[in-house]
Amino acid sequence: MNPLLIRKQLEAFLNEDLCWGDLTTDALLKDETAEAVILAKEEGLMAGGPFVAELFNLLGPTEVKLLKKEGESFKSGDELVYLKGSAANLLKTERTALNLLQRLCGVATAARRLVKALEGTGVKLLDTRKTTPGLRLFEKYAARVGGALNHRFCLSDAVLIKDNHKKLVGGVRQAVKLVRERVSPVYKVEVEVESLDELVEALEAGADAVMLDNFSPEEVKEALKLVKGKVLVEVSGSVTPENARLYALKGVDFISSGYPTRRAQALDLSLEVL
Amino acid sequence: MNPLLIRKQLEAFLNEDLCWGDLTTDALLKDETAEAVILAKEEGLMAGGPFVAELFNLLGPTEVKLLKKEGESFKSGDELVYLKGSAANLLKTERTALNLLQRLCGVATAARRLVKALEGTGVKLLDTRKTTPGLRLFEKYAARVGGALNHRFCLSDAVLIKDNHKKLVGGVRQAVKLVRERVSPVYKVEVEVESLDELVEALEAGADAVMLDNFSPEEVKEALKLVKGKVLVEVSGSVTPENARLYALKGVDFISSGYPTRRAQALDLSLEVL
Amino acid sequence: MNPLLIRKQLEAFLNEDLCWGDLTTDALLKDETAEAVILAKEEGLMAGGPFVAELFNLLGPTEVKLLKKEGESFKSGDELVYLKGSAANLLKTERTALNLLQRLCGVATAARRLVKALEGTGVKLLDTRKTTPGLRLFEKYAARVGGALNHRFCLSDAVLIKDNHKKLVGGVRQAVKLVRERVSPVYKVEVEVESLDELVEALEAGADAVMLDNFSPEEVKEALKLVKGKVLVEVSGSVTPENARLYALKGVDFISSGYPTRRAQALDLSLEVL
Amino acid sequence: MNPLLIRKQLEAFLNEDLCWGDLTTDALLKDETAEAVILAKEEGLMAGGPFVAELFNLLGPTEVKLLKKEGESFKSGDELVYLKGSAANLLKTERTALNLLQRLCGVATAARRLVKALEGTGVKLLDTRKTTPGLRLFEKYAARVGGALNHRFCLSDAVLIKDNHKKLVGGVRQAVKLVRERVSPVYKVEVEVESLDELVEALEAGADAVMLDNFSPEEVKEALKLVKGKVLVEVSGSVTPENARLYALKGVDFISSGYPTRRAQALDLSLEVL
Amino acid sequence: MNPLLIRKQLEAFLNEDLCWGDLTTDALLKDETAEAVILAKEEGLMAGGPFVAELFNLLGPTEVKLLKKEGESFKSGDELVYLKGSAANLLKTERTALNLLQRLCGVATAARRLVKALEGTGVKLLDTRKTTPGLRLFEKYAARVGGALNHRFCLSDAVLIKDNHKKLVGGVRQAVKLVRERVSPVYKVEVEVESLDELVEALEAGADAVMLDNFSPEEVKEALKLVKGKVLVEVSGSVTPENARLYALKGVDFISSGYPTRRAQALDLSLEVL
Amino acid sequence: MNPLLIRKQLEAFLNEDLCWGDLTTDALLKDETAEAVILAKEEGLMAGGPFVAELFNLLGPTEVKLLKKEGESFKSGDELVYLKGSAANLLKTERTALNLLQRLCGVATAARRLVKALEGTGVKLLDTRKTTPGLRLFEKYAARVGGALNHRFCLSDAVLIKDNHKKLVGGVRQAVKLVRERVSPVYKVEVEVESLDELVEALEAGADAVMLDNFSPEEVKEALKLVKGKVLVEVSGSVTPENARLYALKGVDFISSGYPTRRAQALDLSLEVL
Questions:
Q1: What is d(CA A251, CA B132) in angstroms, rounded to the nearest whole number?
Q2: Whole-angstrom Cα distance, residue B64 to residue B77?
Q3: Within chain A, what is the greatest distance between any pair of CA atoms?
């Protein structure tokens, strides 16, 4: 990750909450130092510790010990982070740090749930672009911590011919042809298909990968027979921890799902001064 | 809301997804125009339409009709927004707009659930600062749409003496005294209390409002007897639609809850080119 | 204060003067070190020393000793700041630092003059939003150094129903009612009144504080009889060190005045290389 | 002036006051339109009207009529600007616009006072870099409106060898020599001199202009005899409207003074909804 | 391309030259309108017209007619752009517009030269990341206009295992293995190879594409025999219009070259007021 | 140079290439350290070393030894910079650093070529504003390293009456008159002249400097007879290393040329991990 971008965003997050100062803390505290811990009040997966460490050092130097490793499980009552430094700075940064950490732990926890459901199948989990606006780098990081691979980060770094493209261009064949002409061969061409007919068309047009969108497990089986291992196969659409295993058939390369970012809940965390 | 700030954030959201261009769309489309709708795929409450309208006009003029009013309910299958303009721009803005709208509808839907639970009790719902980093203005807007009032936006606009402050300063009395000396009387002084003893101390120290933190309904009743209507009473801590009514006692002025932002889920929406 | 915001503004101030470089100094100096002092050429009150220290460290490390404490008086000829570091950097930062310091000392000096006039009356001085564009955080800081409390920082952090609001909404009563419905109870509601009739209306409508705008001392007395200590009373309008005492009647809680920022003059300071 | 820079600063000024919204106005007003005027409550010189017009159009289109031309005098009670548009936007922009206008009118008024003192002498007034941090472009504009010419805008656009340079480099001669070698001949070389001896040295070293710093009128006369019209002569130091004429001797090309920016006071203006 | 990013960069380019204003033009011109043309003073290929049109509209509305299409050839004396609008704005934007256009035409001209050398061979030209800092989007655009396809835009959008990677990781095989595990299959894996041995290793390791770096034409022939059409083949290293054809062997998919951006010269253009 | 501006631009350059991360390097490397050198693959002049050192420290601390001094010649095969630090950071910064260094060395090399051609004539080389958009500070720095003096940096820091100004205003005389009235005498007035007649007019109008634009050497001789040393003489237009000496006549003060920036080629450099 690019630390220059991360830094800029962390500063923006802190400014959003601290604004021009902390009315309460500035009235109450001067140079006191304090120790504190971030506590989990429900179970989950640790993700975002390094960002928290950086946040607590924006206003001044703070000692930060990450008590859980990225990707490590914790249960309610566990201490996640130990902090020591200016008491005022701890309180000014508290809410921003908790808000970020609770979200990222939530995303990682949800991702891990899906990854576990796929365990042993050899099928990998991919995340999506269904992220919270402004948080993509962070949420994709949390998805990785949870065990997912990152699908494309934005519209600039991969070709994915989607339903609306096909409608507007006049079909899969025409779309693949145009992309091949105009886009560097350095990029794979993936096509979202919604039926077996479209799949055949995509295979004939020379797609590098196909995304089977909203196929039932039975339809996925049919599709795999057509594909015969010649292109990468991604299954997508409403996959959850409950039904993931049904889609994780031999021949499927990866399953992509918005579940980790869309269904994640911010975990319950708190900061306690010792 | 300040449109200059909103504009800057919407541009950042779009840049996050569009980056330097849309590899796929730029290869496929030129000057085509298209019509599209944003469809709900689950039920919820509309929130964020005006931001969506502004987003779809960042890359060029687009006709946007909001088919649901802010705060209006929708069910699965409903059309929320009608769009007409450059096909390329519709596709380039699609994901960013959906990501924002699905989150804000999710927050408003959750807030409304709590507000409904309080209906008829006269107790108002307040939101919290437990928002997604970078999205506070938007999520507080969505909470309003859902029926909540906004508690403070940041650390600069209200005094709230919290647990950690009391620990560091040596108690409620000392904290209120210091704040009264150093902060303009234009701001109310609210104190978070964790026991009836602390409540008494806060009342004696001259707090303008008290936040009963993690009190049981019975403890709230005891507290109200001590308060006797002399200060504002806020009940806080783990309030959900299921238990809210238990806390909404006569004499409680408002209930604050992180539920709308922390437990919100991004609703399932899609954009379909017609 | 939020050091991230302060830093950004100090950099902008220095960039304004340094632009792409110092034609003269870059031609004349290389790695020379030098000592220098900032001298007062007229009397006043010290305010802004920490910002000066930060400014002189933007281009490289400089040793800065603040020879006067914030809020300490100085007379013509006094040394305010001692500096030691790169001679080139001292000269490149000189004008920006002096421009900021001379303004902030000017504001603090003017504020102190008003505070002195109120000494012993128990009435506190509040500043206003009549600040120089772009310098609000700094000028409000200087007003504090001079002994004032800060009234609201911006339009977002307090409710003040002013003359133009009343005109547009149809009177005090209606305005207070609307605000009570739509704004969180966390904020006090203050009403600017221009007559005893309006004062009565504001009291009946349930304002938390009233601002008596352009009342004569006699009118203030009448007003206080009506208020009877039930709400906070702020006196405002053309208050100067000369007439402040006339308004500082028992029962008045605070006097607000634009005098410290509007009538402040930039004090005469200079930087001398030793 | 560069409208891109101006725009960016005006937005920053408005954001400083509006922050995330106007608590009071947003609670009270919706789509009302209103007319208003900006009134002078003391006499002065108009400066900054175009910036005010731009400010009132940042939040939405507003009709703005400048009732006084730039540089035109006004007296107490005069209407300076007429406004018509969204009532909410007028109130949200009011304080920022007044704060800017009152400062710029103040600077122009002070500049004009000095220019009048020099009337008929043929000596021109120059401003200085003693401006309010962040406002240089605006204050230099106001000084021009008041009748001054602008001395250099920053350290990058002209060579001025000052006292501290001479001390560090070892005298006028050495300083001029170094600058001539290293700086493009496109820039004039001006030397600040503090005695007749230094003046002689500067003339011999080949300065293009000399600044007589803190010379008495008699010393200026002596200096002019030495200069004999061969270089430009600038008189500087504590020049005020009261004593300016004493320095405006035949042979002096221009007088520079920090008076317009350092001694300016923000004029008393108000915005009244009609 | 993302117009929001383009706009921000064009504004930065104009600010770099216009700074706080145009001393000369602001002294000479007021509201005059003028017509002007941009003339070529040497032959080349048109590229960048739309950016020029946008630049000339930053300070105010200007009529711009692009007299040559993107990718069209011109010769010395040809008129490239017709302009009509504020004379002052034309002069203030002139240098920035010419500087951008002369560079982009230069890049497109150089790219076209290479593309022509490859004509009829079926081998496509790819550009590189050897662009001028800050101008990548623009120079890659110009390369496209000249007939190249764009290789990756930055380090985030494609996998390319280069020489230094191999050294640090311990060889091609290990590098491909690690990338396959950690990077989404959505990205192709390209390996830069410097010998036939490395090529074999890359093929066995399962690379999707190979870049033959600094191979002689004979070595390329040997390489193609090993590849047998199984992966994409990119030839790279010191390819110029003079020698390109030697490398454009049957089986080579594309040739990448820094020539268009590194050897481009800014064409000689001028703006003449009519 | 202003290090705050330089830093901001270097960060932008790195962000342009690194975007949100380095797909390849992040998959391959963790905490390895490495040594590397930047090698010249063609001869030239060193320029930009300090920027390279700063670039390699943006992502983390790196030891950087500049093996060639600014302005020192190097030949193919020479090591220019030694680096030691995080292997990942070296690879992530590599391309940005090379792109900047290759361009600046190219500019300095071209400038030096012209300076050499003028050696012994006493005529100085001036650069122009014909720089790459966004790189002016850097390219003017490189021109200085190559031995040129910098002509004006932008439109704000010097007066140059050009051909288009004269056309629009009605001739040299009128233009000089207007500028003298409206611009501070701190700036020299230079006039571009295109004939001997215009030269006479410029001299009579009181220009401080004249730019002889596109004069032949013979015409320059005639011009010098008219000037008689009374104003500075700049020769401009299509001056190259080949013909420069023809223009470097006694009496010419300086020659300005876009050659160093317009005809510069990015030198061939590479970074090799040891």
A1: 38
A2: 19
A3: 71
* B65 noted as active-site residue: no
Residue of chain D minimizing CA distance to F150:
D184
Instruction: State yes or no: ipTM above 0.95.
Output: yes
Q: For residue F131, what are the contacts with CB-CB under 8 A and spacing of at least 6?
A: E99, F139, F140, F261
Ordered structural domains, chain D, with CATH? 3-110+265-273 (3.90.1170.20), 116-262 (3.20.20.70)
C86 vs F69: CA distance, rounded Å:
22
| Distance (Å, whole) CA B43 – CA B201 | 47
- Structure letter (DSSP) for residue D237: S
Q: Are B226 and B81 in contact (CB under 8 A)?
A: no
Of the residues B95, B152, B173, B221, only one is catalytic, namely B95
Taking an 8 Å cut-off on Cβ atoms, the answer to whether D58 and B1 are in contact is: no
Cα separations (Å) of B3 from B54, B61, D59, E41?
Answer: 10, 18, 7, 47
F20 close to A (CB below 8 A)? yes
Q: φ, ψ for residue F262 (rounded to 5)?
A: -85, -35
Residue holding tokens 């009391």?
B166
User: Which ranges of chain E does DSSP label H, i.e. alpha helix?
Assistant: 3-18, 23-28, 49-55, 87-118, 136-145, 163-169, 172-182, 196-205, 217-227, 244-247, 259-262
Sorted by sequence, the CB contacts under 8 Å of residue D186 that are 6+ apart come out as F126, F151, F152, F158, F188, F190, F209
Measured between beta carbons, the chain A residues lying within 8 angstroms of C149 are: none
Positions of E marked catalytic: 95, 130, 162, 192, 213
- Cα–Cα separations (whole angstroms), residue E16 to D4, D260, E23, F127, F183: 11, 29, 15, 16, 21
Say yes or no for a CB contact (<8 Å) between F186 and D156. Answer: no
Asked if A209 and A234 touch (Cβ cutoff 8 Å), the reply is yes
Beta bridge pairs of residue C13 = none
Asked if the C-beta of F29 comes within 8 angstroms of chain A's C-beta atoms, the answer is no
Per DSSP, which regions of chain D are E strands? 33-40, 44-45, 63-66, 73-74, 79-86, 124-126, 159-161, 189-193, 209-213, 232-236, 254-256, 269-273
CA F81 – CA F52 distance, rounded (Å): 9
Interchain CB distance below 8 Å, E137 and B20: yes
SS3 A177: helix
**F258: phi then psi, degrees, rounded to nearest 5:** -80, -5
Residues C37-82 have pLDDT tens digits of 999 999 999 999 999 999 999 999 999 999 999 999 999 999 999 9
CA–CA separation, C94 and C83 (whole Å): 11
- Angle D110-D112-D117 from CA coordinates, rounded to 5°: 105
Where does residue D67 rank: exposed (0-12), middle (13-18), buried (19+ CB within 10 A)?
middle
Q: Which long-range contacts (CB under 8 A, 24 or more apart) does C72-76 make?
A: C72/C45, C72/C46, C73/C43, C73/C44, C73/C45, C73/C46, C74/C40, C74/C43, C74/C44, C74/C45, C74/C46, C75/C40, C75/C43, C76/C40, C76/C41, C76/C42, C76/C43
For residue C238, what are the contacts with CB-CB under 8 A and spacing of at least 6? C214
What mean pLDDT is predicted for residues E97-109?
98
Token pair, residue C216, equals 């004569």
pLDDT (tens digit per residue) in F31-40 = 999 999 999 9
pLDDT at residue F238, as a whole number: 82
| Phi, then psi, of D61 in degrees rounded to 5 | -65, 130
Q: Which residue of D has its CA nearest to C129?
A: D95
Using a CB–CB cutoff of 8 Å, tell me whether C50 touches chain A.
no
Nearest residue of C to residue D9, measured between CA atoms: C134
A chain contacts of residue E208, beta-carbon cutoff 8 Å: 188
**Interval A128-173: pLDDT, tens:** 999 999 999 999 999 999 999 999 999 999 999 999 999 999 999 9
Query: Which residues of chain C does F153 touch, with a Cβ-Cβ cutoff of 8 Å?
Result: 20
